[in-house]
């Protein structure tokens, strides 16, 4: 076969011919065959083939020009198999001039592809999910140009919508391959916003309409695009200014950052360029969205990937503006559980929250903007549910267990019964917790202070709901993580003032900026560190960039005018760091007094003890602090050298080991010796058995997520702290790897209530 010469014609001609072809009254297979011929002729390839993904995840050769006709519908490649599978797995284009020498090459004799040396494949993506692979081949060994790949990507984008619409492969041909799912499914993901709910599945996949893909008037489409962009920007402004956002502070900052994305020049120019190539405005948006995903989801930086999700949310909203709609067109049923690939924070706010019971995402993370807003709204959310959209159908019965990160689709009767019992038990427990708003006191009359952790203004409502004694940790960094520039002094002060107002006189401990590691601020210097958890973060960044920390301290002083101020410095590793941080705060207090600005009625300065280094040096720094809060999550991570984000090692070591408990006891005793209040903050404080042990070691103040206050308060009411303390003292030198089995066996003998024992067994 004589090779064609690569075509240099305007790609819009190919799109116009595709549109004409789709208007013909041919059957589905004939149109598919003619489509491959058309692409091959127009683009100058010897071979053009279309592989479509099936429910089994196999890629089936559905049409070809240039390969053997008998291979159609008979050649199937498994995920990752051959060069076609390589394109599918990577979800990005691949080209080579020597296909048979590539390690991924898979020889299929039935196709007759031996003569073709040059190979290029592009993924057919729809909504960020793989629909199939479009390939082209040539007998001539040559480099494939970027313009050729770009043209094939444009064609693939159009193909995705045509295939999905049924205009190529009709329902009869898909019978047996795309049938409605009926068997129960259980998907394990990550719990990002806690809760347990039952409801019905609502799939959320905004798509481009198949009748608006190929442009007839490029200039007119660009005008439509610009008009929609203007409308998008106005709608975000309205959302921020009209009072629709039911809370302020950091959550409002999420939307402020989101507004900045709508003005991103790079994103907008790529949209306009796709329109100039011959796509409609709708198709251009979908193409750029797919390219973003292919290029950016491989990024190592989690924050970078999460910003991609905000861009995708903007794309969805922009599509709606093109269609004259300004909100998701989903009439939610009662008890709706939204299932989506991902969702942006503004999009989440668009839904009727009286009907939205929960959210299940194929992607997402605990630090995503959507997860943060979901927590603030009290909406259970699970992420990292691979294949959820493929396995669920609209209207399916769904159980979303956001305590353990499990999604049940079409659950069996026994699963429903088990969860009904659990929901009933949870309801009874909630009622009992709601009645326990008074002080938390043990059986032997020990007063235990229970505080909540928070990072959003809306979370302060939990103070009254739970009867908590105050806020043991208010994370201040979120306002900085969502801002493209350093938040202004007055903006920071407004947030902190709102928190103090919402606390209504209860104490609030503000932790200064804990940026770095997995918490990145856009305006902060970006640097790749081999071990970010041990790198330039928290107080290290604050002391190296004193302007950043002093600015925050000044805002805190301004916000607390006339009221008590509790400030805590994180990640202190050496005494000199604590002294330097205290000196900085004292200078800011002097600055306020010198300028006759209102100052706090009192200031308490705290050390967040998170490193073994400062734990063993606490005697040398205790005189510089007014209180100590043990950041148990990081402390145990460094103590055991086990990354708490790594599932392979995070549960490998037990905090109830004698060695770890010995460290907690040492810290408590050192603080007691100097009459310095000490508390524990973190996951260990939120688990009944672990919390009981801390109380037994002498801790009288614990800080945790608001949802854990009720269970811990219930546990405390049945705990004999003195008896447990005596029991622990006699076993702290045990050679056992963990005291957990001994504690569970001893139970009431050690002074433990049933709640602590029951919970400890489930871990």
Strand order of the largest sheet: 7-14-13-9-10-11-12-8
DSSP strand tally? 23
CATH superfamily of the largest domain: Phosphoenolpyruvate-binding domains
The second-level CATH architecture of the largest domain is Alpha-Beta Barrel
Task: Give the helix/strand class.
Answer: alpha/beta
Level-1 CATH class name of the largest domain: Alpha Beta
Number of domains: 4
Overall, the morphology is elongated
Could you name the CATH topology of the largest domain? TIM Barrel
Q: Radius of gyration from the CA trace?
A: 30 Å
Give the strand content: 15-25%
Uncertain regions spanning at least 5 consecutive residues: 1-8, 171-180, 244-251, 298-304
For the terminal residues, how far apart are their CA atoms? 67 Å
What does this structure look like?
The protein has about 775 residues and is of the alpha/beta class. It folds into four domains: about 10-175, GAF domain (Beta-Lactamase, 2-Layer Sandwich), CATH 3.30.450.40; about 180-205 and about 330-435, Phosphohistidine domain (Glucose Oxidase, domain 1, 3-Layer(bba) Sandwich); about 205-325, Orthogonal Bundle (Enzyme I, Chain A, domain 2); about 435-760, TIM Barrel (Alpha-Beta Barrel), CATH 3.20.20. It contains 29 helices and 23 strands. The strands form three sheets. The protein has an eight-stranded mixed beta sheet. Strands 16-17-18-19-20-21-22-23 form an eight-stranded parallel barrel, surrounded by six helices. Helix 8 crosses helix 9 (about 280-295) and helix 17 packs across helix 19. The N and C termini lie far apart (about 65 Å). The model is unreliable at about 1-10, about 170-180, about 245-250 and about 300-305 (pLDDT under 50).
């Amino acid at each position: 076969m004589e090779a064609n010469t690569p075509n240099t014609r305007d790609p819009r001609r190919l799109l116009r011919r595709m549109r004409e072809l789709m208007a013909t009254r041919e059957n589905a297979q004939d149109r598919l065959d003619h489509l491959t011929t058309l692409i091959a002729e127009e683009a100058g390839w010897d071979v053009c083939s279309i592989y479509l993904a099936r429910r089994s995840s196999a890629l089936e050769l559905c049409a070809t020009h240039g390969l053997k006709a008998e291979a159609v519908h008979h050649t199937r490649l498994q995920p990752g198999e051959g060069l076609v599978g390589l394109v599918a797995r990577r979800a990005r284009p691949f080209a080579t001039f020597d296909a048979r020498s590539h390690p991924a090459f898979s020889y299929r004799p039935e196709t007759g592809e031996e003569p073709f040396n040059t190979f290029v494949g592009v993924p057919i993506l729809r909504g960020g999910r793989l629909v199939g692979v479009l390939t082209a081949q040539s007998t001539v060994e040559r480099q494939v140009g970027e313009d050729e790949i770009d043209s094939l990507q444009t064609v693939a984008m159009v193909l995705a919508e045509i295939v999905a619409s049924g205009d190529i492969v009709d329902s009869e041909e898909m019978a047996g391959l795309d049938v409605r799912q009926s068997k129960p499914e259980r998907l394990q993901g990550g719990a990002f916003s806690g809760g347990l709910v039952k409801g019905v599945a609502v799939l959320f996949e905004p798509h481009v309409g198949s009748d608006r893909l190929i442009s007839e008037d490029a200039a007119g489409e660009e005008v439509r695009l610009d008009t929609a962009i203007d409308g998008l920007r106005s709608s975000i402004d309205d959302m921020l200014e009209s009072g629709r956002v039911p809370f302020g502070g950091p959550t409002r900052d999420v939307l402020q950052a989101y507004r900045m994305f709508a003005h991103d020049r790079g994103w907008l120019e790529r949209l306009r360029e796709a329109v100039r190539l011959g796509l409609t405005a709708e198709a251009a948006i979908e193409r750029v969205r797919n390219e973003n995903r292919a290029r950016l989801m491989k990024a190592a930086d989690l924050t970078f990937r999460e910003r991609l999700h905000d861009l995708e949310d903007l794309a969805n909203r922009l599509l709606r503006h093109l269609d004259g709609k300004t909100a998701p067109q989903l009439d939610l049923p009662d008890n709706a559980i939204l299932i989506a690939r991902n969702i942006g924070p503004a999009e989440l706010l668009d839904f009727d929250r009286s009907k939205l019971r929960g959210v299940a995402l194929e992607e997402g993370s605990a630090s995503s903007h959507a997860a943060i807003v979901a927590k603030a709204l009290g909406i259970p959310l699970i992420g990292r549910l691979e294949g959820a959209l493929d396995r669920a159908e609209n209207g399916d019965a769904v159980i979303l267990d956001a305590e353990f990160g499990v999604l049940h689709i079409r659950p069996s009767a026994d699963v429903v019964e088990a969860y009904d019992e659990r929901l009933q038990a949870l309801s009874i427990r909630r009622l009992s917790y709601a009645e326990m708003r008074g002080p938390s006191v043990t059986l032997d009359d020990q007063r235990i202070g229970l505080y909540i952790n928070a990072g959003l203004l809306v979370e302060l409502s939990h103070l009254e709901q739970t009867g908590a004694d105050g806020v043991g940790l208010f994370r201040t960094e979120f306002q900085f993580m969502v801002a493209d520039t350093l938040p202004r002094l007055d903006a920071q002060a407004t947030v902190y003032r709102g928190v103090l107002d919402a606390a209504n006189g209860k104490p609030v401990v503000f932790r200064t900026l804990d940026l770095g590691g997995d918490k990145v601020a856009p305006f902060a210097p970006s640097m790749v560190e081999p071990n970010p958890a041990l790198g330039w973060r928290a107080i290290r960044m604050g002391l190296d960039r004193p302007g950043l920390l002093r600015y925050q301290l000044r805002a805190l002083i301004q916000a607390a005018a006339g009221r008590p101020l509790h400030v805590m410095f994180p990640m202190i590793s050496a005494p000199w760091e604590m002294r330097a941080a205290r000196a900085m705060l004292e200078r800011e207090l002097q600055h306020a007094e010198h300028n006759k600005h209102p100052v706090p009625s009192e200031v308490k300065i705290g050390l967040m003890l998170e490193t073994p280094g400062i734990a063993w040096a606490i005697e040398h720094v205790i005189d510089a602090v007014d209180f100590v809060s043990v950041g148990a999550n990081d402390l145990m991570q460094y103590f055991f050298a086990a990354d708490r984000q790594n599932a392979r090692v995070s549960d490998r070591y037990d905090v109830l080991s004698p060695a770890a408990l010995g460290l907690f006891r040492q810290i408590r005793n050192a603080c007691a010796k100097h009459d310095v209040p000490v508390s524990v903050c973190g996951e260990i404080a939120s688990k009944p058995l672990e919390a009981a042990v801390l109380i037994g070691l002498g801790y009288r103040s614990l800080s945790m997520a608001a949802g854990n206050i009720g269970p811990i308060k219930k546990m405390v009411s049945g705990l004999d702290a003195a008896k447990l303390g005596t029991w622990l003292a006699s076993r702290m030198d045990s050679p056992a790897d963990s005291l957990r089995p001994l504690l569970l066996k001893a139970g009431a003998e050690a002074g433990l209530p049933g709640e602590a024992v029951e919970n400890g067994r489930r871990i």
